Fold this sequence. Notes:
This protein is of the alpha/beta class. It contains eleven helices and eleven strands. The chain has two domains: about 5-45, no CATH class; about 70-339, 3-Layer(aba) Sandwich (Rossmann fold), CATH 3.40.50.1820.
Amino acid sequence: MLTVEVATGRVLAVPQAGQWLFIPATRRLVLSILASTIVALAMMSGAQASGQSPLARKANWLTPAMSAPGVTYETLISPTIRDKVSFHIYLPPDYSANRERRYPTLYWLHGTGGGLRGIPVISGLFDVAIKEGKIPPIILVFPNGLPEGMWTDSADGQAPIETILIDELLPHIDAKYRTIPSRRARILEGFSMGGYGAARIGFRHTDLFASVSMLAAGPLDQDFKGPRAVADPTMRQRILNTVYGSDIAIYREQSPSQVAMVEAPTIRSELKLRVIVGNEDFTALDNRAFHQHLTQLDIPHEYQELAGIGHDAPRILSSLGDDNWRFYRAAFAEILLEN
């Protein structure tokens, strides 16, 4: 057994022949490193035994910065987690020069893995569309939803992603940037896991968002046994454990299908909604079923299956052609006439 100074982790003494021998600083350092390693391995073993990744409870609230024209990397202090949270933001070309103008905002929710590499691509598509006059100048916000955060507050409270987005990031954006602070000037859009998040958050917060766009959204099934979950059962179990507290009932309660049923009357009257998926996407069948579910609930929405397109956000947006940009123009048309 080692005697360890609790405050610092330093090894102070070791037992020998029934007596404690206090040891020099150099040897204490070596033994301290050994003790730390043993503790770390024990923690990893415990985490693995519980079905959690060793790093599951240490969220990546600060991502690396991505570089693209008009895009900056920012942070805010979250009162909820008492730490910094990063996000990226795209400002349109005339933002600095036109200081009297206010802008509508699109919140883009990324898919599994964190979506960092997609930021330059997505912002680039919108940048070109703005410069070509296909859409009015808008602000794009790329929140940090963690690689497998599912855009919801985790059951154990350790990853309050929805709370940070709605209660902290959105007010921060409206306070710091020249947005039009109105639900009619906000779109919530997401791809894959982000499409799942855009639906369940947007359906619950029609007071904050007037439009929702779901691109190849998933998971949309009620048992969390869609194609990706079946292909990677380890990931499925990890997400079920860390996000939903190992409780499939919580997963179902948070699903877009369930939220749509609960919020159907408000969604019908308040929300502009589109559901887009490629017919070669592994989420296509579930998106088709979700479209049918919305139809049964009498929720107006636009639904398209794109021929020859797989699970690829830029290709979805590009393949839509002007239909894509028409959605944003229509969503912001009324509010822009007033500003």
